[in-house]
Amino acid sequence: MTKLDRIFSDRISDVPRSFIREILKVALDPSVISFAGGLPNRELFPVAALKEATCKVFDTQGRDVLQYAGSEGHAGLREYISTRYREKANLDIPVDSILITSGSQQGLDLLGKTILNEGDAVVIEEPGYLGAIQAFSLYRPRFLPVPVSGEGMDPVALRSALSSRPKLMYTVPNFQNPSGITYSDQNRLELARILEETDTLLIEDDPYGDLRFTGHAQTSFKELLPGNTILLGSFSKSLVPGLRLGWIVAPPALMQKLITAKQATDLHTSHFTQGIVCQYVRDNDADEHIRMIRDVYGRQCQAMQNSIQRYFPAEVTYTKPEGGMFLWAELPLDMAAMDLFELAVRDKVVFVPGDPFYVRGNRHRTLRLNFSCADVDTIDVGIGRLGKAIRELMERGAEQ
Ligand SMILES: Cc1ncc(COP(=O)(O)O)c(C=O)c1O
Asked: Is 101 in the pocket of ligand 1 (CB under 6 A)?
């Protein structure tokens, strides 16, 4: 208890702290190999092209982009996003249904602010994205976790959760954070049919969709369930996260409320950074850049699977992501990833134990491994260290 405890809101006291931030402190030691972060690979940032775009923006629209601007976002950038949906995903998304946000993380907060009253039910993936759990927790909802596994979300568990009439259902159907799982077309269709009969709004959070390095694209929920779907997008993984640019695609009635929430929160997202990205996509081939990211992540993901095959005991199962930045492993029964974490830190390798990605239970046996930031040789050394730690933990268990 400190003198300040009395002043904190119940709202903030209930929000889980990001355990990942604590882990990242350990990862600052250069002798530690980290699979814990959730960062895009900084070596791939197009720094020179962004610098050039920035200078051009200053030269040609300096006073415009440094002035206050409309809450909806930069007209040129919204136009680009709308065109890209049409060309890449065959989705008809009118410019008016796009609201630019300060990262898709802000999209989650604005949705919580606009839709959730205390105690409202929210379906969340299990395991689910920690940032969404944190963002919604501020509005004190009742989480209804529904398991996701190889094919996607469990339809039987979803039907049961829907009996509580949730207002929102949060999903990351492409290369999910944390598991790397992609919902199959059949699973998407089944979930869409179930939701069609309800007034629950589905959030399709898709920051990784562009980063597919194998397999074929699945149908978007926005196409399968247009009236009930809210799409979230981001430039963080396909370009850079530091400019903090994302967007929400929402139906008109919801859009009006979201704009009010956006005005109350920060008036508008930086017009300057929006201008930079708009200039960058005009002067550069954004797809070529994305192909380069996919190639690198695809090689690193494959290298991680090869090393897991080589060093992990056969009892450990793991996902085989078709894109994104994460792979998810599951230890044998009776083992806890938190126990493995202690041994791994000693052996100078870190990962994120599954616990923060669940809203119920603890001492889970799952772990998240990030492959976007380490090169192939480092991945091999790190997974080798982790394999040794897993075997040691298994032997300890067998002795007890
Ligand atoms: C599933 C998911 N949604 C949203 C975000 C937040 O992204 P942004 O940088 O656009 O706020 C992340 C970031 O890691 C994420 O993994």
From this structure: no
Q: Is the CB of 241 under 6 A from ligand 1?
A: yes
Considering the domain architecture, whether residues 107 and 209 belong to the same structural domain is answered as: yes
* Token pair 């207002």: residue: 167
Q: Is there a domain that residue 369 lies in?
A: yes
Residues 137 and 279 in one domain: yes
pTM of the model: 0.96
Count, in order, helices (H) and strands (E) of the chain. 14, 14
Question: 104 CA to middle of ligand 1, Å?
Answer: 6
Of 240, 265, 283, which residue constitutes the final position of a domain? 283
Q: Is 173 in the pocket of ligand 1 (CB under 6 A)?
A: no
State residue 155's pLDDT score: 98
Judgement on whether residues 259 and 362 belong to the same structural domain of the protein:
no
Q: Write the CATH number for 362.
A: 3.90.1150.10
What spacing in Å lies between the alpha carbon of 235 and ligand 1's midpoint? 10
Number of domains in the chain: 2
> CB of 377 within 8 A of CB of 371?
no
Task: Give yes or no for residue 1 having a pLDDT over 70.
Answer: no
Q: How far is CA 214 from the centre of its chain?
A: 19
Q: CB–CB of 203/169 below 8 Å?
A: yes
Q: How far is the CA of 176 from the centre of ligand 1 (A)?
A: 11
Residue at 52 is within a domain: no
User: pLDDT band for position 22 (50/70/90)?
Assistant: confident
Average of per-residue pLDDT across 227-231: 96
